Amino acid sequence: MKTNAFSQSDQVSRSRSVEQLVVGRATSDGAGVKLTRVLSQSLQHRLDPFLMLDAFASDNPDDYIAGFPDHPHRGFETVTYMIAGRMRHRDNAGHEGLLENGGVQWMTAGRGIIHSEIPMQEEGVMEGFQLWLNLPGKDKMIAPWYRDFAAADLPRLVTETGVAVTVIAGESQGVTGAVTREATAPIYLDLHFPAGSHFAQAVPKDYNAFVYVYRGEVSIDGSDVPAQRMAILGRDAQADGVVIQASADARALLIAGRPLNEPIAQYGPFVMNTEQEIYQALNDFRDGRLA
């Protein structure tokens, strides 16, 4: 998609501040893929509607080559953003796609899906993120949905200070992202800062929001946020957005969304509202009814 050059920044009269800096936890998932869990289960209520954020980055094939063989999901959405690398998706609903450099895979598990994510490379760097976005209770049993977005299909813009913005979800500077959602209304931006630039994004007061820096360092309302840190943004009633500054080249994700304010019951790859619904998901998976 054509880039909108030098878009006007959102108007922000008072920026949110950094409430907390979070260091991710090294772990592995799937068939031994090494990753960093940045947003974990302990932060789900504070960052509602977001359930998880994993970051992965390695040039060692042993860290990623086995991928994620067939596994189930129910009750939420996954958003996989591939910075570098190639990964093949297949699922039991008949969807198949190849996620490549700069692309996004958006999958709504809904009432149930079983899928695999397998690297299509034997060497080189594999880097990216997977975000889990909750579904409201009324939508947890909807039909599964899936779509791949190539890098060229993602809306982009460049601000007046030179920040290159990829709008994966929501809206920024008048540009609508690849995906919008009514219930959670997520904003998902990838921001590339040249030295000495700043970026302003309007964020509704009731939204939960965070910034994850994956290159360089940024500053938010006087607080420095180094690489591989997640900054949870405070919910100041007077703040109408966030202003991010970078004195040197940097890259960061800005993610925000409307909280669902519903109970969260999670067991592994199933996220529902009650324990009884979790038991039902487990039974349906065991009995081959997860679809």
Describe this structure in words.
The protein has 291 residues and is mainly beta. The protein contains one helix and 27 strands. It has one helix spanning 275-286, and strands spanning 4-7, 18-23, 25-29, 33-39, 50-58, 68-73, 76-84, 87-91, 96-99, 104-108, 113-119, 126-134, 145-149, 156-159, 164-169, 171-172, 175-176, 187-193, 197-202, 208-215, 217-220, 223-226, 229-233, 241-246, 250-257, 265-267, 270-272. The strands form six sheets. The chain has an eight-stranded mixed beta sheet, with no helix packed on it. The relative contact order is 0.21.
Radius of gyration: 18 Å
State the order of secondary-structure elements, H for helix, E for strand: EEEEEEEEEEEEEEEEEEEEEEEEEEEH
List the total number of helices: 1
Number of strands: 27
Query: Largest sheet, if any?
Result: 8 strands, mixed
* Major sheet strand order: 1-14-15-18-25-20-23-2
From the helix content, strand content and strand pairing, which structural class follows?
mainly beta
Contiguous low-pLDDT stretches (5 residues minimum) are none
How confident overall, as mean pLDDT?
94
**Helical content class:** under 10%
Strand content: over 45%
What is the terminal separation in angstroms? 34 Å
Shape: globular
Describe the secondary-structure layout.
Elements: E1 4-7, E2 18-23, E3 25-29, E4 33-39, E5 50-58, E6 68-73, E7 76-84, E8 87-91, E9 96-99, E10 104-108, E11 113-119, E12 126-134, E13 145-149, E14 156-159, E15 164-169, E16 171-172, E17 175-176, E18 187-193, E19 197-202, E20 208-215, E21 217-220, E22 223-226, E23 229-233, E24 241-246, E25 250-257, E26 265-267, E27 270-272, H1 275-286
Parallel strand pairs: 1-14
Antiparallel strand pairs: 2-23, 3-4, 4-5, 5-12, 6-11, 7-10, 7-12, 8-9, 8-11, 10-13, 14-15, 15-18, 16-17, 18-25, 19-24, 20-23, 20-25, 21-22, 21-24, 26-27
